[in-house]
Amino acid sequence: MYIGIDLGGTNIAAALVDKNGVILKRAGVPTGTDGGAKNVTDRIQSVCETLTENEASPISIGVGVPGTVNDETGEVIFTPNLPLSGVNIAGELKKKYECPVHIGNDANCAALGETVAGGAKGARDVVFITLGTGVGGGIILNRRLHTGVNGAAGELGHMVIIAGGRACGCGRKGCWERYASASGLIETANEFMKTHSDSKLWELCGGESEKVNGRTVFDAYRTGDRVAKLTVEQYVEHLATGIVDIINILEPELFCVGGGISNAWDCLSEPLKAAVDAEKYTRFSLQSPQTSIVKAALGNDAGIIGAAFLGNR
């Protein structure tokens, strides 16, 4: 059995996972960032202790971290929302556990989890994206996680799709993340709302545009609201632009879409696939097979399961 840990800014979620990616036992605690790095690492230790109580020693432990990591050294290189930059998480766990300990970027872990036991199960080459506050990504090539020369590969949200576009937190302008994330969707909705005072979105947000969220946009879209329709159409166009670019570069077997926005798959699936099919390079040929676009299946468990399998990546 393996231990997978998803280290979030608010909570630490962990599980004991079997060789097939099935979760057998769960544990979780608040991350406790107010107490500094030692408090967080102590809490990681505590969830491991909970999971291993009355259990055999784990084969390996994996930790998914929202940031850049070095799995060879076990060190967190940089994580913007946790006080762990420069901390050797693997080294701390090895003080108590004799098994191998691995660390990985949280989006990469989710990609691995979906490939092991989720929407991309069994696929050889997969690109995974998570559409939340930002756009995270992970790349699986020949059934192995691709992390690049320094462990930072897969930052798909930070490729530019509109030169000189919206300013991004990474310092660039026009990043895919600024258009294809939930934050990007909301910004697009607000732009349309400024010139359409009759939109149902105003009603759903109580007349306060800052209260618009992804759910209200798709709720209004399902009623046929014109502004929501314009918003979703533009969102799909931007999402498809990035997906097409990645498909043209890698031609993966599957493109797997997760994150909160994927909960509106009923609104997105058909127009997204149509937009991608109309733009990708292989539309000019009858080459088969083609990349399939699928919804992720594991939800928040993807990162936990993927972390458990970091040692088998």
Give an overview in words:
It is built from ten helices and twelve strands. It folds into two domains: 126 residues, ATPase, nucleotide binding domain (Nucleotidyltransferase, domain 5); 175 residues, 2-Layer Sandwich (Nucleotidyltransferase, domain 5), CATH 3.30.420. Helix 9 links the parallel strand 11 and strand 12. The protein starts with a strand and ends in a 5-residue tail after the last helix. The mean pLDDT is 94. It is an alpha/beta fold. Helices cover 36% and strands 20% of the residues.
What kind of sheet is the major sheet? Answer: 5 strands, mixed
General shape: globular
The level 1 CATH classification of the largest domain is Alpha Beta
Distance between the termini: 16 Å
Regions with little confidence, pLDDT below 50 for 5+ residues: none
Radius of gyration: 20 Å
Widest sheet: strand ordering? 3-2-1-4-7
CATH topology title of the largest domain: Nucleotidyltransferase, domain 5
Structural class by secondary-structure content: alpha/beta
**Number of structural domains:** 2
- Give the overall average pLDDT: 94
Helix content: 25-40%
Measured by DSSP, the beta-strand proportion falls in 15-25%
The tally of strands reads 12
The SSE order reads: EEEHEEEHEHEEEHHHHHEHEH
Q: Helical region count?
A: 10
CATH architecture of the largest domain: 2-Layer Sandwich
**The CATH fourth-level homologous superfamily of the largest domain:** ATPase, nucleotide binding domain
